[in-house]
Design goal:
The complex is a heterodimer. Chain A is of the alpha+beta class. Chain A contains 16 helices and 19 strands. In chain A, strands 1, 10, 11, 12, 13, 14, 15, 18 and 19 form a 9-stranded mixed sheet that branches. In chain A, strands 5-6-8-7 form a 4-stranded antiparallel sheet, covered by helices on one side. A two-stranded antiparallel ribbon of chain A has the order 2-9. In chain A, helix 8 runs antiparallel to helix 11 and helix 15 packs antiparallel against helix 16. The relative contact order of chain A is 0.15. By secondary structure, chain B is mainly alpha-helical. In chain B, helix 5 runs antiparallel to helix 10 and helix 12 packs antiparallel against helix 13. Chain B is globular. Classes of the chains: A alpha+beta, B mainly alpha. Chains A and B meet through helix 1, helix 6 and helix 13 of A and helix 2, helix 3, helix 5, helix 7 and helix 8 of B.
Chain lengths: 518, 313
């Protein structure tokens, strides 16, 4: 009996020891611990995985550039004023008709695969624009508003880009993720980027200290051409999806910068740390079915307009989102082309909504399906009751998988959520609303077409007017049913870092501008 | 005993196989596909089909299943369909996180619960009532709420412990245990309450057994009667509950891992399920099932060691 007990005890100890040893072995557990001193390390906590599909930066939208700017360089980068500044490009010029852009490349840029930047690498990158999986190229791909028709490597340092339509500000089309240049090996074998980045950025990925979907540790590459411009020797990117845990991370000082903060945690964060905020996120309903394919009512412009007038944004903001701004237009308040008059003109008017429904042939309203993952959020529920008053029945379809949510742009007449329109709304329209995933039908609207083309082909005051026209066209033709402009908050530890800055009115940070507190 | 262990191990292999089969069928029976996730929002049916073809998702079911089993037999967990990461390496880094939390929380629950339960049974009266009431309250508290409370007090107000994250043991042993303390305490609150009640009931029952009365009559010291003979009798249900608790904590770690941003198995299984990342999901299921089966086996052996009736049954 005693012998048996001893053996059992040994077994228990063995299992406990094995687990402890395993714990010891988990050296890459991704906790963000580093042998470097804390002051050398910038810890950024984010609310969603920075690289859920691997390290090909072109798979992601512009907002992901904050993370990818550590590993990759772009031809142009958006600065804190919202301007696209040359990065891998030393200088650039446009032809008089704005149909050709000539880029001169920077010297001394080396990729992780050991190869040098030259015009053939840039061409090889931009020639991937036909790949529909590459979200970053939503604006410059075939059939898009800023379509590139040809990329030529004129000489090793010179690239000539030919546009289908005039592009007065071509740098905007090639900024951040859209202008990222992947190394030659990565371009030749994009599958390799699933696990191994190949960029010329100021940091390299420490794979041994990184755990997918949890934590990414980046070590400065002292050989990088711009290494000195970045303040920290190490950057640890932590993924914290729970809103309260994200707030706790910055409050407790475990994260130096954390965002996007959930609105319910902002007061708590501000009680111990500081925050920065930016507008530019328009919460609303992009109309994904303008042809009436999934819902005949949406093929009728008046029926779509009825949604604009049936939405009581002011009440919703007062009751649920104090501090946000009720809006009837897609363009943020800080963006060129914003028109305050549109908010009055297309404000809440249920009688007008009913009149439009009657004129559209739907006097009793119609049903609208909206796919939601889990439970619908409080905004959607509030809007459901508002629309019900004019007879529009918003029905929630519960998705059972992520791909069902993705597919909603093809199966539902609208989707709902916050969309970061940012400081370059023409780019958003070209890459998402008109030429991207919000218009998979390829619907056309001459007024939007004309004003978008004009906006992309103009600069200065002329561009301002065309952007105003574009904003009005989108609103009048009800391609987007806006609800409110939301603010994006990041918390930061003021004892460790200076206030982070956003990329203009875009809701993502310029990571290179995060400096130690003085 | 060896034959007994061999039979249980064979059963364990069958259990893992069944778990893989059920998971495989459930993933394929559900709506959607990994190609749709990989192709992204707004992808056309043709693009999704192409992505599925590249991932091998359009092969015959039995071919895919045979392929899966073949790889598992070679302990090759493969790579993620979504991001291409090595799943064996991923498990190697995540298993210690979930395992440490579940094991340490179970051990802490056991120690605290047994002390409280035995105290309640031995002292009786108001002490027993207090412990019983306290255990009732502790059992009714949701773990996530307890966790938020601990973080608020121990981390945000007092600054004693980190609020989130995990530090590998190899990097910093002190950091490792401090990073796990709040999650462990959070889970141990309910666990200790359950053990306290189980131990109290067991001890009361034990102290009324005939052999205990005989020991008293023989003049055996009270401490020996309580803490050796009676406790041994009461430990059988306690060990069973501890085993179940470990399994529950190991399998249900996703909430705690999200709350404390811990890179464990729960987190990866959630991502895998949402993305139809079948190899990733299977790898987690295999590991989790193996841990459950081994825990059950260990539990049976411990109970058999403690209770002669079980051995002879």
């Amino acid at each position: 009996m005693n012998r048996f007990t001893t053996r059992t005890g040994a077994a228990v100890i063995a299992v406990a020891t094995a687990t402890s040893v395993a714990a010891c072995g988990g050296g890459s557990g991704g906790g963000g611990s580093s042998s470097a001193s804390a002051s050398d390390t910038l810890t950024v906590a984010v609310d969603a995985d920075a690289a859920p599909n691997g390290y090909d930066p072109l798979l992601y939208s512009q907002g992901q550039y904050t993370f990818f700017s550590t590993l990759y360089d772009a031809l142009f980068v958006t600065d804190e004023d919202g301007k696209a500044q040359p990065n891998l490009v030393s200088q650039f010029s446009n032809s008089p008709d704005n149909l050709k852009t000539t880029l001169t490349l920077r010297d001394g840029v080396t990729f992780a695969d050991g190869k040098k930047l030259d015009s053939t690498v840039v061409k090889a990158n931009l020639d991937r624009r036909t790949d529909p999986k590459l979200e970053a190229y939503g604006q410059i791909g075939k059939g898009q508003a800023s379509e590139i028709t040809d990329v030529a490597a004129a000489d090793p340092k010179t690239v000539v880009i030919t546009w289908k339509a005039p592009q007065a500000t071509p740098e905007n089309n090639l900024a951040d993720t859209a202008g990222v240049i992947v190394g030659p090996d990565g371009v030749a074998n994009p599958d390799s980027l699933e696990t191994e980045p190949d960029g010329s950025g100021p940091y390299t990925l420490d794979d041994g200290k990184s755990t997918r979907a949890s934590s990414y540790t980046l070590d400065k590459n002292a050989q990088a051409w711009h290494a000195d411009a970045w303040s920290f020797d190490h950057v640890v990117y932590k993924v914290i999806t729970d809103p309260q845990a994200l707030a706790n991370a910055v409050i407790s000082g475990q994260a130096d910068v954390a965002g996007i903060l959930d609105p319910t945690t902002i007061d708590q964060v501000e009680s111990k740390q500081k925050t920065v905020k930016i507008g530019g996120t328009i919460v609303g309903f992009p109309v994904t079915d303008k042809k009436g394919a999934t819902n005949p009512a949406f093929g009728n412009e008046k029926a779509r307009q009825a949604l604009l007038y049936a939405t009581d944004r002011t009440s919703l903001v007062d009751q649920l989102h104090q501090g946000s701004r009720a809006t009837s237009q897609l363009f943020p308040e800080g963006a060129t082309g914003f028109d305050a008059g549109l908010d009055d003109e297309f404000g809440y008017d249920p009688d007008k909504a009913k009149q439009l429904l009657a004129e559209a042939g739907y006097p009793n309203g119609f049903d609208v399906n909206l796919t939601v993952l889990g439970q619908p959020d409080e905004d959607a529920v509030a809007i459901q009751s508002q629309w019900k008053k004019v007879g529009i029945n918003l029905k929630f379809v519960t998705a059972t998988s992520t791909d069902q949510v993705f597919a909603a742009v093809n199966t539902d007449p609208v989707i709902f959520g916050p969309f970061a329109v940012g400081s370059n709304p023409a780019g958003f329209v070209a890459g998402a609303l008109y030429g991207g995933f919000m218009n998979t039908q390829g619907a056309k609207e001459p007024a939007i077409d004309a004003s978008l083309g004009a906006a992309l082909g103009a600069k200065g005051d002329a561009q301002k007017q065309t952007l105003t026209d574009l904003n009005r066209a989108i609103t009048e033709h009800a391609w987007y049913i806006p609800v409110y402009e939301d603010f994006t908050y990041y918390g930061y530890n003021a004892g460790k870092v200076a206030a982070p800055v956003f990329a203009g009115t875009n809701n993502y940070l310029v990571l290179s501008e995060i400096k130690p507190a003085s | 005993m060896l034959a007994y262990v061999a039979r249980r191990l064979a059963l364990a292999v069958g259990t893992v196989f069944a778990a893989v089969l059920i998971t495989f069928l459930l993933v394929h029976a559900g709506q959607g596909s990994p190609g749709a996730v990989k192709a992204g929002a707004g992808a056309s049916a043709a693009e999704i089909a192409q992505a599925n073809h590249e991932l091998g998702w359009d092969r015959a079911l039995w071919v895919q299943f045979a392929d899966t089993i073949g790889h598992l037999i070679r302990l090759d967990f493969g790579t993620s369909l979504i991001d291409g990461r090595d799943l064996g390496h991923d498990l190697f880094t995540r298993l210690p996180v979930t395992g440490s939390i579940a094991l340490l929380a179970t051990l802490l629950s056991g120690v605290v619960g047994v002390v409280l339960g035995v105290t309640a049974a031995v002292r009786g009266g108001r002490v027993a009532q207090s412990i019983n009431s306290g255990a009732g309250v502790a059992l009714s508290l949701p773990a996530f709420w307890v966790g938020i409370l601990f973080v608020y007090v121990l981390s945000l107000q007092l600054g004693w412990l980190p609020a989130t994250g995990y530090v590998p043991f190899a990097d910093d042993p002190v950091g490792w245990i401090t990073s796990l303390l709040i999650p462990i305490l959070t889970l141990a609150v309910g666990g200790a309450a359950m053990i306290a009640r189980t131990a109290a009931v067991g001890m009361r029952e034990a102290l009324q057994q005939e052999h205990i009365r005989t020991l008293r009559a023989m003049g055996t010291p009270t401490w020996r009667i309580r803490y050796v003979h009676a406790l041994r009798y009461a430990s059988v249900p306690v060990v069973s509950v501890l085993g179940i608790q470990f399994i529950a904590l190991f399998g249900g770690s996703v909430i705690i891992e999200n709350l404390f941003a811990l890179p464990g198995l729960g987190q990866t299984s959630q991502i895998a399920a949402a993305g139809h990342d079948f190899p990733a999901l299977i790898s987690v299921v295999v590991v989790a099932t193996a841990v459950v089966v081994l825990t059950n086996l260990l539990l049976d052996l411990v109970v058999a060691a403690l209770d002669p009736k079980v051995r002879t049954a």
